[in-house]
Design goal:
With 300 residues, this protein is an all-alpha fold. Helix content is 71%, strand content 0%. The chain contains 12 helices and no strands. The protein starts with a helix and ends in an 8-residue tail after the last helix.
Length: 300
């Protein structure tokens, strides 16, 4: 018996009698401090986005040129002010609303389209697989951020166009993973039995294949939320993302670029915020992977 198998059996034996699968999942998921830290950051991030109006002490769009470029803590501004006198803390809090909106909507677009294409290609195979996956391969020749940048440049800036651009740019990854999962699951005995019993293609795909492909997709989506937030910040930094004066972390980093030597906190504060949030989503995704697939536990 390997040490890993023995460790897993000991871990399972330590669970209280009658413990449900949910508690086993939570025990494994919360077994590492870094995952707990990531979960706390994500909860704080969601709360900041949901209650921005109550948390932010100032209007994020209000300009006060008499109090421009204040240092952190001066005159009641926790993180100082930018070149137009706008409160940095308020803009970062409201920027969380923009980030989570872009992350969730773009993720939904890419995940839904990608999983539909991947599931269809993996289940039917043959010419359907060839047509869909060659299209996906063509999109994957471009790095996701470059593809999103091209689409955003064609559509123009703005919140709606950025969400569409990121949704399309991130879609090939979901299609590729779902297709691989569907190719494996469709050969299982229960799928063969369902096919032999006369079940329709739609029923087999939605009732038998899709639910068994979903766990790795959940892990991928959790990690990709952070990637999408980072990509949105990159587009905004390049000037093809969220249009000012809407608070967006990427555009805030760009606005502070000209003051990098004299007032680096203008760029560092939103940049560190992006780093922490993306790190949190990555760690939570890693924790979900450990809980869903024990064979990968302990690897990062």
């Amino acid at each position: 018996m390997s040490q890993e198998t023995a460790g897993q059996r000991i871990e399972m034996s330590e669970l209280p009698p009658g413990s449900s699968e949910f508690w086993r999942f939570m025990r494994v998921f919360l077994s590492r401090p870094v995952v707990i830290f990531g979960a706390i950051v994500i909860v704080a991030f969601v709360i900041a986005a949901a209650f921005s109006g109550s948390i932010a002490p100032y209007d994020p769009l209000a300009q006060d040129l008499t109090n421009r470029l204040l240092k952190p803590g001066q005159q009641g501004h926790l993180l100082g002010t930018d070149a137009l006198g706008r409160d940095m803390f308020s803009r970062i809090v409201f920027g969380s609303r923009t980030a989570i909106m872009v992350g969730v909507v773009a993720l939904s677009i890419s995940a839904v389209i990608g999983m539909i294409l991947g599931l269809t290609a993996g289940y039917f195979g043959g010419i359907t697989y060839a047509m869909i996956m060659r299209f996906i391969d063509a999109l994957m020749t471009f790095p996701p951020i470059l593809l999103a940048l091209t689409i955003a440049a064609l559509l123009g800036g703005g919140l709606f166009n950025v969400m569409i651009a990121l949704g399309i740019g991130m879609m090939p990854g979901y299609a590729r993973v779902m297709c691989g999962q569907a190719l494996s699951v469709r050969e299982k005995d229960y799928v063969m039995c369902a096919r032999a019993s006369g079940a329709t293609h739609a029923r087999i795909m939605l009732r038998h294949i899709f639910p068994n492909c979903l766990p790795p997709m959940i892990v991928l989506m959790t990690v990709m939320i952070g990637v999408t937030i980072l990509a949105e910040a990159g587009l905004s930094f390049l000037g093809v993302g969220i249009i000012p004066p809407t608070p967006a972390w990427g555009s805030m980093v760009y606005e502070g670029y000209n003051y990098l030597l004299t007032d680096p906190m203008l760029s560092f504060t939103p940049g560190i915020t992006i780093m922490i949030v993306v790190f949190a989503f990555n760690m939570v995704g890693d924790g979900l992977r450990d809980a869903i697939d024990p064979s990968l536990r302990g690897t990062i």
